[in-house]
Amino acid sequence: MMVPMRQKGVSAPEFVEFYTAQKDRCLRAAVASGMEPDRAEDAVAEAFARAWSRWGSVRGMESPAAWVVRTAINQHISWWRKRRREVFPEVPPDLPVTDELGRPDLVAAIRRLPPRQREVVVLRYLLDLDTESTARSMGVAPGTVSAHLHHALASLRAHLTVSEGTSP
Amino acid sequence: MTTELEQALRSSADELFLDTPAVDVLARGDRLRRERRRGFALGASGLVALAAIGVAVLGGTGDDRGPAEATGTKDTPALRIASWSGPSTNLSAEQLADVQDACAAQARGLVDEAGPAEAGWLLAGTTPPVAAELRDDLVLTYFRKGRDYQTCALRATEAGGFQVSAQSAGAERVMPADRPVALVTSGASDPGPLGGSLSRVYFVVRTSPEVASVELTVAGVTYDSAADGLGLFWLPEGEVTEAQLDRATVTALDSDGGVLYRSRPGQEW
Prior knowledge:
The complex is a heterodimer. By secondary structure, chain A is mostly helical. Chain A has 9 helices and no strands.
């Protein structure tokens, strides 16, 4: 059996507990943030490994799970995408996003939100952080989080209403 | 109060599970940690060598940054509107006006919400596009004044109008001193998954005065664009992956077809 390296002041069982509790949540957050599921699996696993390699500092962060998701995403941003500056308007109500069966696709709708709104939704709902923790993780005021969340929910609600109304 | 939507968000993508065993993650983490330690132990000689390289690179970067006027680009005459595929737009004057209005309104909304922004966001409301093309149900436009730019992609609606689907704005980069072509911006008709496939991809490149045409090679296919300070590419329908785009190369040619510059796959340009 493999025995993890000892790191000063940290324990493998503690990390394993964190990993077990957060791995699926982080994968879903990475996918909702825009990663393809197949790539996200490898990227999130690698990000967890990086978290373990420096667990002494990561464990003390505001949200280690948010760090894992951000690390997974950052690993896969190419120079080409870094040069993209596009802003995608909130999903227009007459352009519903549906899955292959014509049902509203919530993850696709989250992906189309403007970046800050998307980040707030991912942190608040997929990683289950409260408003204060979300604000600290993003480096913004709690009021800004609430404002982004308000716009994001309004957009998603409109999208879902139209999608449900237009599905067969 | 938790709404139905918030509940749905909390359970979205809940069909996804990460199956990597914890033991594998721990082993990989340990390996990363060992490699980092080995990196720290490179020794003073390695650090000295790296420092020398760093100085050279930083020196080059500083020299690359000439004044904006050094590029010699000129403003395109107001009513000469090109398409991304050829010399003239395929949009009617009425459609162009609708497109301009839609782009301006959307950009105003963004600026109102986010506060003061780059001057490029205001271009659609003040100047006609330098390029606009309708393909199927998608219109792609490029606004430009001086070095400020705005891209605006719109979908044609069933009612005959246009709805903005993506926008970007910024300032075109100053031309690097060591090459006659540089990417201004690029995008796709949809945000696309990170690292995944994208369709209807476009590129805008800036060129120096001696460049007459530019070639863009993506996934083994080469596309041409005339260059008059700008080169515009809108790839045909069909998906390309982000990895292929990351390895796209650009070639700048003079009026005799001589190669002035050719990038290497994976090299940023």
